[in-house]
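Q: How do we represent a protein-ligand complex in a form that can be generated token by token?
A: Start from the inputs.
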Amino acid sequence: MNTHPDILLKVGDITKENVCAIVNAANYSLMGGGGVDGTIHRAGGSQILDECRKIRQEQYPEGLPTGKAVATTAGKMPAQYVIHTVGPIYHQCGQACPSLLASCYTSSLQTAVGLGCKDVSFPAISTGIYGYPKEEAARIAYEAVKAFLEEGHDLKVYFIFHHFDDKEIFERAISKLERD
Ligand code: AR6
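Then emit the structure tokens for the protein with AR6 bound:
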């Protein structure tokens, strides 16, 4: 497949990733939840929630807006940081869905670069509980990350899939994009 050389797709559990930063598909409250969010908080321990509470108090009393990103420690996980971003809820975002989802990737990457990271792992944001169609989400994710890397950032970006089928959907969508 003709994927960008610094974008890699893997099947696995993002909490096990030994990279500078892993991205969390959080919700506006930053107080944890189900899906990958719940798994990250359980694996990392209470330090993550403590820092999220502080971010809410000091920076985002109304909650983190969709498409934005903030960083905390990764606690007990091998990564150094968790970058929390809030994906759009597909049945609520209307015409703004693609730009909000792209913004999750771009904001997270900007945050990673700001932290001095050289590698970062993403889950497939919004494609679980938030219901974003996977193929469309794959195109948006790939194009946003590729555009960011083409600005000249020295970063390796991993897409981590919990299920093999999801990796295949993303691979197909990306190879279609690179063919067109
Ligand atoms: N590693 C990698 N990917 C995972 C893992 C894991 N350990 N666990 C799940 N996934 P979701 P969303 C995949 O629902 O759609 C939470 O309650 C999963 O298969 O976690 O953005 C938050 O608090 C799917 O492909 O996130 C929010 O309220 C992808 O991660 C809401 O869910 C995203 O699925 C966010 O929903």
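The chain has one domain: 7-179. Residues 31 and 64 are 11 Å apart (CA to CA).
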